[in-house]
Every structure is written in structure tokens, then in C-alpha cells.
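Late entry, written up from scratch paper. The run itself happened at the end of the previous shift, but nothing got recorded in the book at the time, so transcribing now.
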Amino acid sequence: MMNRENKLALMKDRFARLSRSEKNIKCGGVLRRLKRDIRNLEKLK
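Output as recorded:
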């Protein structure tokens, strides 16, 4: 199982890739959820 730091790094990478994409994202909720999950994981540290 992945530890918290690896999971957080993967999520941040995915968020960066999605937010810099030129195309419209079909579901804005994906970015909102990623942001929220990243914030919550950082809070647990």
C-alpha cells in the first residue's frame, strides 16, 4: 500500500496536469475534489 507522501505527490501531479490542460474539463468537480483531498491530506501531516 502507498504511504501518504507518495499518494499526495501523485495527486498533486494529477492536479497540475489537469489544471494546465488547454481543453475544457468535462467535470469541474474532479478538480474541486482533488483540491479538497490534497488539502485534507496535508492537514493530516
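The chain has a mean pLDDT of 85.
(Scratch paper discarded after transcription.)
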